Amino acid sequence: MNIKRIAELAGVSKASVSRVLNNHPSVSPELRAAVETVVRQEGYEPNAVARALARRRTGNIALVIPRPAQFAFGHAFLTEVMRGVGAALEAQSLGLQIITSAGPASLSAIHRDRSCDGIVFAGIWADDPLARHLDDAVVPVVVVGRPSPQLAVPFVTMDDEEGAYAATRHLLARGHRRLALVNGPASMWSVNRRRGFQRALLEAGLAFDRSLALDGEFSSDSGQRLMAKLLARPERPTGVFLASDVMAYGALAAARQTGLSVPGDLAVAGFDNFPFSALTEPPLTTVDAHAFTLGFRAAGLLLAALRGETPVESQITLPMTLVVRSST
Amino acid sequence: MNIKRIAELAGVSKASVSRVLNNHPSVSPELRAAVETVVRQEGYEPNAVARALARRRTGNIALVIPRPAQFAFGHAFLTEVMRGVGAALEAQSLGLQIITSAGPASLSAIHRDRSCDGIVFAGIWADDPLARHLDDAVVPVVVVGRPSPQLAVPFVTMDDEEGAYAATRHLLARGHRRLALVNGPASMWSVNRRRGFQRALLEAGLAFDRSLALDGEFSSDSGQRLMAKLLARPERPTGVFLASDVMAYGALAAARQTGLSVPGDLAVAGFDNFPFSALTEPPLTTVDAHAFTLGFRAAGLLLAALRGETPVESQITLPMTLVVRSST
DNA sequence: TCCCGCCCTGAAACCGGTTTCAAGGCAAGG
DNA sequence: CCTTGCCTTGAAACCGGTTTCAGGGCGGGA
Q1: For an engineered disulfide with A73, which of A206, B14, B62, B83 has Cβ 3.0 to 4.6 Å away?
Q2: With 90 as the cut, is the pLDDT of residue A188 above it?
Q3: For A221 and D4, how far is CA from C1' in angstroms?
Q4: B284 with B252: CB under 8 angstroms?
Q5: Which strands, in side-by-side order, build the sheet including B285-288?
Q6: Between residues 139 and 178 of chain B, which touch chain A (CB distance below 8 Å)?
Q7: Out of A46, A99, A136, closest to residue B95 by CB
Q8: Does residue A249 belong to the interface with chain B, where contact is any CB pair within 8 Å?
């Protein structure tokens, strides 16, 4: 069933059917009624692809996460970003296409094949070469996270240096002096979090003890392993800041296995504020990374661009908020 | 930039450019070289929408979850299903469109507007009226979960009755005699889980105590509240089966607050086996619902249908596996 | 030498819509 | 009564590809 056939059945032209379907003002009530009757009888739905071609708008935007699907959908931070993007698009009844595992070739295709009206780019942590292809897109692009200081592309990122700083200051305020850092793998986020951690230490007149800073992989396993390692040291730390909640879950397990109480013997602070972090034993003190908002605002910037607006601010850095629970 | 312009620049016809781009066998090396040079110079990428229209294949499939995005992307079970679907599609380099909050109208549109080549339907729990529109789709549809016994639509569901049965039997085998049930809201899943629970009790010669069976909403809050209620009873249960891990997290918290030890005073078994369930204190005994596999297999059925194959089995019920940890 | 068939290429039709443009009908105004 | 202009409608162009079909060139067989 297509528009031509509907037109024949209703005894009108394709153009008229199109006008009726798009609520064009200049159609007579009779014609409208005739067309609508046929449309209903036949259960006709216009072909979305043909419509997109003619209108030069697909009505959906892509969230590109250049990682395997297995990883992207299993990652609490990224699914929260999806949630934010999805919520923003839903309000405008736009479609959401999630593209995972995009290599440089397919990425460059997405940028120029007009299969979507705009792109939100997320999940690039290291200074990825993929980020270089960002500005040759033919549709608006917004990045979650900060791709690279040079690029002029709009982005929404978090102030993770401030977040790490706040968490560390909180640990210091609780009286801890030997603080450990379990960071993520080298990436734009990790560098900032380490910087915030260090800054808080220096301001408190404490030296940054390199041997108390280890790098994990954002997994609970790595958190547990590294925490165990730190606790096995002759002078073990009394507080630890982990650059991700998931690693903190591992750290809590490690403390338990070592027979230490949290926060009595060890204060633990994480970063992300995933939903589960309120349910750990004890509930985790952490920095809320506002992942949902990151996605929501990024989609908002994109929608503004699609409407042709030029937002006053197109490079946004969200402030982080410390969530104090019982683990510190 | 379009195919016509490329053709002009290369001094050939549109048809030839198309043949080169699609690796058609009958093109001379010279023509191929000429076209490829221009394509590279201009950074040309064929318009995906026009291509989809001409080919009558969009190259992407839709995962429809008729719930608000806020809910769908925040739900551990559903994101696992997404992960499975995504992983299956990624292997075939097909696109994934996630459609949330589809009301009856937009749902019927998705089924017939040819904006995707196939549909995986998930997230319907109750006997939703939406399920009735399933068979008027013009593209193949596969459902995650069992929509309704009458419908002949292909589906992949879990054997949750057996799962609940296994968990309950496990609790009984641990010597518990007063067992409580915290079920989800009325839905196709919940009915089965209750049935499995009851069957295990009856087989053990125990009566099903209606006052020990409560219905929550799959949230940790409701789990905590209902568990507290159950523990406040004069004769409190010594074991509980909760129809979702998230509710079990709440139950663990309730036990802690009541000063009861798990599994000493109360054995707790959940259902889902979310990643976090290995990290609770104590780690949670639960039934693995294989959400990832549910999505993966559903996408597999769809891919088979798209290839024109008729799978021997198009209505699949996955067996559940009990994961015994320290909470029982 | 002529004819046949294959290889390569381009013209044109097609996918299924939207939009422009022109024209017919009719009411209002001069 | 004629002109003007608005309202409504249809024909045709267009969006940007793919695919069919027909034809030209060329090599091989008779």
Answers
A1: B83
A2: no
A3: 83
A4: yes
A5: B213-215, B179-183, B239-242, B267-272, B285-288, B321-323
A6: none
A7: A99
A8: yes
Please tell me whether any atom of strand D lies within 7 Å of the Cβ of A45: no
Give me the DSSP letters along B204-232. TT----GGGEEE--SSHHHHHHHHHHHHT
| CA neighbor of B131 nearest in space, from B108, B101, B115 | B108
Collapsing DSSP to helix, strand or coil, B8 comes out as helix
DSSP string covering B287-318, please?
EE--HHHHHHHHHHHHHHHHTT---S--EEEE
Q: Which nucleotides of D are covered by protein (CB under 7 A)?
A: 7-20
**Count of CB atoms within 10 A of residue B22's CB?**
11
> What is the mean pLDDT, run by run of 10 residues, along chain B of 328 residues?
95 96 93 96 96 97 95 96 97 95 83 96 77 85 87 92 97 96 85 95 94 92 95 94 96 95 95 94 96 98 93 92 96
The residue of chain A nearest to residue B44, with distances taken between CA atoms, is A112
Tell if the CB–CB gap between A95 and B93 is shorter than 8 Å. no
| Mean of per-residue pLDDT scores for chain A | 93
- Interchain CB distance below 8 Å, A99 and B98: no
Q: How far is the CA of A33 from the C1' of C29 (A)?
A: 33
Contact A161, A192 (CB under 8 A): yes
- Chain A contact for B89 (CB, 8 A cutoff): yes
Task: Indicate whether this model's pTM tops 0.85.
Answer: yes
Q: What H or E segment, with its residue span, contains residue B84?
A: helix B76-91
What per-residue confidence (pLDDT) applies to B127?
65
- Domains delineated in chain A: 1-56 (1.10.260.40), 160-290 (3.40.50.2300)
B73: phi then psi, degrees, rounded to nearest 5? -80, -10
Whether A68 sits inside 8 A of B90 (CB atoms) is: yes
Q: Is A23 left (phi over 0), alpha (psi -120 to 50) or beta?
A: left
Q: Is any atom of strand D within 7 angstroms of residue A33's beta carbon? A: no
Residues 6+ away with beta carbon under 8 Å from A36: A20
Give B96's strand partners. Answer: A98, B61
